[in-house]
Design goal:
alpha+beta; 13 helices; 6-stranded mixed beta sheet; Trna Endonuclease, Chain: A, domain 1; 7-stranded antiparallel beta sheet
Length: 531
């Protein structure tokens, strides 16, 4: 660890690290003591020395930080307890999964042996080819996925499996890997072997996302088989893609923005008083519910107003807080100067002309992209008929919501001028699973719309929940638009999209790389053009 650093150096490192890794955890002697996704923290200066305080409902920690040192996804903090002279090291770790590489490698190696036994028993007439899980960066294959083939004469199946120790997100990525592996197997087979399709093997109880996706893949392109594996008894259970049940989704009633703004008029004036008047128009008011409104700058929420019980408990007051998550601070006469300084710094640094090295500029890029398109979706229109001319008056964020929580993606729902719902999946950085995550959102919008429409009135569940008031929506299923900076669209995206059924009408939109300043589509590909 280096010599003692200044408050500015330490705070800049910590703020930057947590901006890049908002789900980091704090470790003390390899034990997790705080999850920064839910815990709160503050950095205070005392004579140019940095004091770190972290607290949650269960515990509290206060340490003087002498220096920080970043190694890959770990930020080491040299700290002193009050009254002690010997430094101790705390670690901020980006990934909650802290198994050592050796431990992960051991689990995956044992899983390969288990998988081979299972495949021999389940498919005795087929030869099990060499199973592997080695990293292959060129083809986007990670070590979490076991890959192999089953052969019988000239017939063959591609096989991809994932073990129960992996995260749910890793398990959900198995279909993307499977499609890429099947494609590679067919290319390598050079016609000497006929690969009928893909067999996917996932842990018992972790199958629902993959199961729901399978039903929308082309049956004429491949046969798709999905199995759950109980690793304890080494038993395979085949799942039917038609047996999905209800999707994990919910649709909340659309709040009334005008009513919420009127309710919080006095509180909004207090917030705007802290913002330079010339920058008021940059503030986005996001109504979360009838009792809560968020204020955002380029998608980043910096303040929140909510109704709270007064001390008497019989009346409601407006509570104003600044910052989110660990940094959330109530507005009071004592905190007002600090919060005004924070807001001033935010508005000066989080601008389209800002530095890409600045954590406040880089923070939440998908939210920035979503915010820009909510304000002006026009640049996505190509001007060729009504197919992709969006109705800018109706643009909703994350409707419906995923019950499983945040997927690290942001979505928009709008309507084209021919009355068709339009699902927009947004991504600011490269993502291997972009196509299938877009399909997830499309499926849920389709399910809410086409499965609940009233034939007599033409009104579906969206209008009954307050969305698209006064409009008659087309009964046709929604269209899917995948929107990302053109150089950050993973090559796998188009490969996976080609396996979607024709019912999933998709358009891939590649944006100008400097989209924060210039929102312009420079790449546009449609499903009908790639059929």
């Amino acid at each position: 660890m280096q010599t003692e650093q200044s408050f500015q150096q330490i705070s800049a490192h910590i703020e930057s690290f947590l901006a890049e890794h908002p789900r980091a955890v704090l470790l003390d002697e390899s034990k997790v003591i705080f999850d920064l996704a839910t815990a709160k923290y503050s950095l205070q200066e005392h004579g140019n020395r940095c004091t770190l305080q972290v607290w949650s409902e269960d515990c509290n920690l206060t340490r003087r930080v002498l220096a920080v040192d970043q190694r890959k996804d770990v930020l080491k903090l040299s700290t002193l307890r009050f009254g002690q002279s010997r430094p101790q090291t705390l670690q901020l770790v980006a990934q909650p999964n802290r198994r050592t590489p050796r431990a992960r490698e051991g689990i995956r190696k044992r899983y390969l042996a288990l998988l081979e036994r299972v495949l021999h028993r389940a498919f005795p007439e087929w030869k099990v080819g060499a199973l592997r899980s080695a990293m292959d960066l060129e083809r986007s294959f990670g070590p979490a996925y076991a890959r192999g083939v089953l052969t019988k004469g000239q017939q063959a199946w591609a096989v991809v499996a994932v073990n129960a120790s992996e995260s749910q997100a890793t398990v959900d990525g198995v279909l993307t890997i499977g499609i890429l592996w099947l494609q590679l197997c067919r290319e390598r087979g050079e016609g000497k072997r006929l690969f009928q399709g893909l067999k996917l093997i996932v842990p018992k109880g972790m199958v629902l996302v993959t199961l729901s996706r399978l039903g929308w893949l082309r049956a004429d392109a491949a046969r798709w088989k999905l199995y759950e594996l109980d690793e304890q008894i080494e038993e395979l259970i085949e799942r039917d893609a038609a047996d999905v049940g209800n999707l994990a989704t919910k649709l909340l009633h659309a709040p009334d923005p005008a009513l919420a703004r009127e309710r919080f008029r006095a509180a909004l004036r207090q917030v705007y008083a802290l913002i330079p008047e010339s920058q008021h128009e940059q503030v986005e008011q996001r109504v979360r519910s009838t009792s809560e409104i968020g204020l955002l700058l380029h998608g980043l929420e910096f303040a929140r107003i909510r109704q709270a019980a007064a001390n008497s408990g019989f009346s409601l007051i407006s509570e104003i807080t600044f910052g989110t998550g660990a940094n959330e601070t109530p507005l009071s006469p004592a905190t007002k100067p600090m919060l005004q300084e924070m807001v001033s710094e935010l508005f000066s640094r989080r601008q389209a002309h800002g530095s890409s090295r600045d954590p406040l500029f880089r923070m939440a890029p998908e939210a920035w992209l979503e915010s820009a398109l909510r304000k002006n979706i026009g640049p996505l229109t190509d001007g060729q008929g009504t197919f992709s001319q969006f109705n800018a008056e109706y643009v909703y964020a994350q409707v419906p919501a995923f019950q499983a929580g945040d997927r690290g993606m942001l979505d928009l729902l709008t309507i084209t001028h021919d009355g068709r719902l339009a699902v927009l999946e947004l991504k600011a950085g490269e993502d291997l699973h972009f196509a299938l995550q877009g399909l997830d959102y499309w499926m849920r919008v389709r399910w809410h719309h086409t499965q609940t429409i009233d034939p007599a009135t033409g009104l579906g569940t969206f209008q009954r929940h307050g969305y698209f008031p006064g409009l008659r929506l087309s009964a046709e299923p929604p269209r899917l638009f995948l929107v990302a900076p053109s150089l950050h669209i993973h090559p796998a995206t188009e490969q996976v999209l080609r396996y979607f059924k024709p019912e999933v009408e998709w358009t891939l939109l590649g944006l100008h790389e400097n989209w924060r300043r210039t929102m312009k589509v420079i790449v546009r590909k449609r499903s009908k053009e790639c059929a």
